[in-house]
Model the fold of this input.
Amino acid sequence: KQEVTQIPAALSVPEGENLVLNCSFTDSAIYNLQWFRQDPGKGLTSLLLIQSSQREQTSGRLNASLDKSSGRSTLYIAASQPGDSATYLCAVRTQGGSEKLVFGKGTKLTVNP
Amino acid sequence: SAVISQKPSRDICQRGTSLTIQCQVDSQVTMMFWYRQQPGQSLTLIATANQGSEATYESGFVIDKFPISRPNLTFSTLTVSNMSPEDSSIYLCSALGGQGSYGYTFGSGTRLTVV
Done:
């Protein structure tokens, strides 16, 4: 059974700092991995999608990497801003025909001005 | 990727009543799903909404409590029946597929409070 773990559970940084959020998964046979952002009481916004054959994806100040063999992904946020404050969720779709996503519990990020 | 309109965005309901949540996708999608997010928790899959047939429920969720419809490839509803305060959560619909998309898209969520 696939399990997804995110570390740390919460992170508080000053504005302008570069930071890394971590995601690990137990079954390396994944189809893809997706990072989401969730603002309090809101839905999920997709940030980056990495297919199993890819090593990284970039969008603006965000860079996500994938090391499938070790079961790890990182989300790098450059030059953090107060508007980046949110919960970041990592989700994995496992191979084998299942369309289900398995979510981590998220990292709550606070960027202080 | 697909855009999902979900409504209502929030509601406060009396215990014992039912609430129906609607999701409309702006393009035909392969799959639609319903999730629950209890306070302070991550997302839990309730069921996969199958077009033209009964939904596929995850362990711990039953059709009598969470009836789901998906009459076509762009629309689905979730009903939370006979509500109790324990049903207070955020409910989210999700879609897989759509034009040029390999990932999942989520609606903006329905924040339900049962009193």
